[in-house]
Amino acid sequence: MDINKPAGFGIRLLASIIDVFILILTSSFIFYIFSGKLSIDWTNGVAWQLMYTLYLTVIPVLWGGYVIGKRICGIKVKRMDNQNVTLPNMIMREIVGYYLISLITLGLSVVVSVFMIIFREDKRGIHDIIGGTYIATVKQGE
């Protein structure tokens, strides 16, 4: 299990911010087209959380470990054997390792994961360990 160039907390946070920004803009535009109302109030509910979790779970499987924010930032999700992620990896990572555990621990696992990503040499959080994944920095053209 050789981890090649793990991505640190800062670049991972930036990629997440880009993803949220792009998804909210796109979803709000679609919502506006169908309803005629311009609002982001719906992002406070279950629909947003479900959509965002599904996006983070499915798109990396279809797009070789990338979501939009990660692609822009030059990082991607990889399995510990450096292969592309599979749906079971991403379900364990996002749904179990991130979403369900953060609900059970009332968010404490997210704080612990931040410190793990900052201080661990392999830059893996709880969700990465559960999913058998890490976030790799990729070279231009990879």
From TrEMBL:
Cited InterPro entries: Pra-immunoreactive (IPR051791), RDD (IPR010432)
Transmembrane segment boundaries: 12-34, 46-69, 96-119
Keywords attached to this entry: Cell membrane, Membrane, Transmembrane, Transmembrane helix
Pfam families, A to Z: RDD
Chief place where the protein resides: membrane
Chain ranges of the RDD domain: 7-132
Membrane topology field: Multi-pass membrane protein
Keyword Nucleotide-binding applies: no
Subcellular location(s) of the protein: Cell membrane
Entry protein name: RDD family membrane protein YckC
